[in-house]
Design brief:
By secondary structure, the chain is mostly beta strands. The protein is built from 5 helices and 21 strands. The protein is about 10% helix and about 45% strand. The radius of gyration is 19 Å and the shape is globular. This is Putative GH43/DUF377 family glycosyl hydrolase.
């Protein structure tokens, strides 16, 4: 069994108006000697923007901006830009986030070539109604009934946790996203291929696009995308969040799986236990949400993998683990066919 080391709290909210409620769920990328962090900054009444800081070591902040780097501009994000992730593909930085208009929460994209100036590309996940989803997925034999339970009554289904793989695979842009209760995977040559017809065909064959499903007790309720996948010689290391019920509440843990390099929808191995879960005071109790470790970004220094996460939806913390040790532990796990 492998255990991650809790490195503690990295930073907390300030008195600045855009982040005086909480800071959480950071996107992280290293360029040269700097680690760049784009984080969800929340102010009163749960309105979110994206803040920025950089670090000159995995645990030490060098500079922190006193204003957001990305704020709501359009109707589709008027209530918040939330939970960013970031990768670089073909010289372009892809920063994904949840666009929240007060009713609908959907994955959106902003791109940059310098990590300072971002161009918003809009929502790129499907905007599908509950009724259309029910109709289009009727031919998916044995589709998890939780899809209808979790999404019943929604006008537009929430599609969150949008995360790109950090390079093209077989010439395609590949990303994961999440309509509860599973993580789905999508691959296209270009983002312009994400048309209404594309999504109609996608949902009629949804079972073919399920990336990860709940398999173990610590992820029994649902799973969601976490950090951008990490390429290793053994496959893509995927750190995601798993959710279970504990005494009537949800507990969010950091989970790990290994996926095939050239066919990332195929699972090689999965930890049968959480890599880490809430057990520190700052993870167990927050302002509004308790029992949360929500991983969203990583930095690799030699063999040491630093995992940044939102703790109790209130602050940003870090854990670390040996990359070699984690992949070796994954490869020791027997493969179980996940439910489809």
């Amino acid at each position: 069994m492998i255990k991650a080391k809790k490195e503690g709290v990295i930073f907390r909210k300030t008195e600045l108006s855009f982040e005086n409620e909480s800071v959480l769920n950071p996107a992280v990328i290293k360029e040269g000697d700097l680690i760049h962090i784009f984080y969800r900054a929340v102010h009163i009444k749960n309105y979110s923007s994206i803040g920025y800081c950089n670090m000159d070591s995995p645990l030490t902040i060098k500079e922190r901006w006193e204003k957001p780097i990305l704020s709501p501009e359009f109707d589709y994000e008027k209530h918040g830009t939330e939970d960013p992730r970031i990768v670089q593909i073909d010289g372009v930085y892809y920063l994904t986030y949840v666009a929240f208009d007060g009713d609908n929460a959907l994955g959106a994209l902003a791109t940059s070539t310098d990590l300072v100036n971002f161009k918003k590309q809009g929502i790129i996940v499907p905007k599908i109604t509950y009724t259309d989803f029910d109709l289009l997925t009727q031919n998916n034999i044995n589709l998890n009934k939780k899809y209808l339970v979790y999404n019943e009554g929604a006008n537009i289904l929430a599609d969150k946790d949008l995360v790109f793989f950090p390079r093209r695979i077989n010439g395609k842009l590949v990303f994961t996203h999440r309509i509860k209760p599973d993580i789905q995977i999508t691959a296209v040559k270009e983002l312009s291929d994400l048309t209404d017809d594309f999504w109609i065909n996608y949902f009629s064959r949804l079972k073919d696009h399920i990336f990860l499903s709940s398999q173990y007790p610590h992820e029994a309720e649902y799973v969601g995308s976490g950090c951008p996948p990490i390429e290793t010689e053994h496959g893509w290391l995927v750190l995601y969040h798993g959710v279970k019920r504990v005494h009537g509440n949800y507990e969010y843990s950091c989970c790990a799986a290994l996926m095939e390099l050239n066919d990332p929808g195929k699972e090689i191995a999965r930890l049968p236990y959480p890599l880490f879960k809430p057990d520190q005071d700052y993870e167990l109790a927050g302002g509004d949400v308790d029992d949360v470790c929500f991983p969203t970004g990583t930095v690799l220094e030699g063999d040491q993998l630093y995992i940044y996460y939102g703790a109790a939806d209130e602050l940003i913390a870090c854990a670390s683990v040996s990359l070699k040790g984690l992949t070796e532990e994954l490869l020791r796990q027997p493969f179980l066919n996940p439910p489809r």
